[in-house]
Amino acid sequence: MATFLYKLGRFAFRRRHVVILLWIALLTIAGVGAATAPAATSGSFSMPGTEAQRAFDLLEERFPGGSADGANARVVFKAPDGQKMTDPANKTRVDEAVAELRSGSDQVANVTDPYAAQAVSQDGTTAYIHVSYKANGMELTDETREALKETGEEARDAGLTVEIGGDALQAAPETGTGEIIGVIVAGIVLVITFGSLIAAGLPLVTAIIGVGIGVSSITALASALDLGTTTGTLASMIGLAVGIDYALFIVSRYRAELAEGRDREEAAGRAVGTAGSAVVFAGLTVVIALVGLAVVNIPMLTKMGVAAAGTVAIAVLIALTLIPALLGYAGKRIVGRKARKAMAEAATTASGTSATSGTSGASAASAASAAPAASGVDLAKGEQEEEPKANAGTRWARLVLRRPVVVLLVGVLGLGALAVPAASLEMGLPDDGAQPTSTTQRRAYDLLSEGFGPGFNGPLMVVVDGDKAAADKAAEQIKGLDGVAAVTPPTPNKAGDAAMVTVVPKDRPSSTETESLVHEIRDTTGDNVLVTGQTAMNIDFSQKMNDALLPYLALVVGLAFLLLMVVFRSVLVPLKAALGFLLSVVAALGAVVAVFQWGWLGSLFGVEQTGPIMSMMPIFMVGVVFGLAMDYEVFLVTRMREAYVHGERPGEAIVTGFRHGARVVTAAAVIMIAVFAGFIGSSEQMVKMIGFGLATAVLFDAFIVRMAIVPAVLALLGHKAWWLPRWLDRVLPNVDVEGEGLRKELADDDPEAERELVRV
Q1: Which residues lie below 8 Å from residue 221, measured CB to CB, with a gap of 6+?
Q2: pLDDT per residue over 410-456, tens digit each?
Q3: DSSP result, 226-238
Q4: Does 46-68+460-532 match 392-426+548-724 in CATH topology?
Q5: Long-range Cβ contacts of 573-577 (<8 Å, 24+ apart)
Q6: Choices 3.40.50.1820, 1.10.1410.40, 1.20.1640.10, 2.40.10.220: CATH for 392-426+548-724
Q7: Which of 131, 143, 407, 458 could lock 73 by a disulfide, CB 3.0 to 4.6 Å apart?
Q8: d(Cα 484, Cα 517) in Å, to the nearest integer?
């Protein structure tokens, strides 16, 4: 593989005009497709195999023409102190609001009069209008939303307290803020890392191009493939993360090759042949993690995973082709001013030496090429020294080598302590009660809870597959359960072979008591009684995600283990990588539980309401963080493996890997932490939780697992770390990630380079 990628890198460098035009053409085609494609909807959501989904399908079949999949709104009114909503003046204002809502938009399916529907609280202070729409929340027009808001404003002007709940005001998710913050921080970190604006700009530009192509393609296909509006958000987050990482790895290796005295085209070829191999396998682990979401058997998640995996594949191709092409344009400006000056002085010295000794032109060129490496020129710093300077990565690696047991124990015990809260993990989906108190949805939620009881915000819809007698029997059974606050009389369909019963729980929708009630209804009633509704769908979704977590982990970690075994030609190194990843993810989940479920330091992160952890969080964190963690593992340990294969002792190989890779991995991790942390400031609880969880997981994995536990374990294992049974060595394909085959091939082509190649 290294030889093929070496040739690909040199080809892209030489034919940079063609390569760049091809990528620009792809970006243009994707952009035009996105601009001309039909607008995406929120996407259909289904959960095959769950009772809530079967009940929903039965509703669609037996109650045709209903608006079960449409948006809903509750306009909640509260009378001023000392008044009631039944007072003539207040009733008149509510009647006017009902009339305005019915005529305000042709997307309205039904508006319920609170006085006719008995939607007034027992104390008479609170009432609500229920509005159902023909379209879902993402498909509502701005005019429809504005009509809903204006109705509330007019009633407020009349002296009533008015708040609006439901999903009708749910707009398409806003994206861009977190990404912008991440790009700004990434730019700062890259400038500090490289000391060159050109070198810092390349990863940013190529990552943005990759995300642009990926997200534009998703937008163009969203309507045809029913991808939904949230698919592009995940793809942009992952694509930006890996795009910066992969480009960072290639550019860093290119600069290192220049520091060894290579000419620019040769340096580009070797960078793609070595670091590019690591990028390919790191990208494969991310693709495995994302495509593996299919095991959950939720079509929406499968589509999101496949779309994001496509964006990752684009990021890999860009790193292998567009980066070397752009390096051809960058010239010597890829390094800082001091480094360029040092390189020129080294070349002048070498040229003068060759002229004095009467060497041939070819030998002089070879001497000029080798001079910077022989004299120890560090192009990143512009310094000369006899031996490589002991940078921070080198010093840390040597510290770990001196105290591997202490470092290993501190790292494992520290992450173990952080993981303890994960044992109390409770999963669910947040409702409007988790919204900030500044939102009208949260205030409407609170008003309904005060006026009608906590469970009123999450009614259960019970569908009875049978006649009126069967429905009456089911309603009576449900009334006798402890967690039930109210049960409405059954509403039969026109054919009389099915009926709907609305059940109001005593507790709030996201509580464990309501979840227990759903299971109790299902256990108490017959097979012809099905429970659905938003609350039941959330409960079934959480259960489905929980059941899929272990199979997903086994699939992803198992396939990645095999892949890493091919990369590192070792059994223990992939095993250590997988176990370290699991430790960092569980520790991050523990931190999420402590903050969002227990409320520890909640005010620091803007957590106003504690509750269960979002159902998607564990499996989503596993998929995303696993990919990023394996990026760091592959890039860092590949340099160690490369040094070991080229003859260094195990301890020396660890130091070499950190000398070349620690700075880059640190920069990549800081960038990812900044990107994910940018989402913590969101007002949406789910987005806030995802940002916190991913930022914490990357922090733990990059700086504790990869930077501390990994070298400590490798130091303790010594030569055994790279052990592979002979029979397995014969079976596994040799992909030459370390570039050993490339090294030999280049040495055969140019014997004069043998001495130079030994240093690589």
Answers
A1: 33, 37, 227
A2: 999 999 999 999 988 888 776 777 677 778 888 888 888 888 888 88
A3: T--SSHHHHHHHH
A4: no
A5: 573/637, 573/641, 573/714, 573/721, 573/722, 576/710, 576/713, 576/714, 577/629, 577/630, 577/633, 577/637, 577/710
A6: 1.20.1640.10
A7: 131
A8: 8
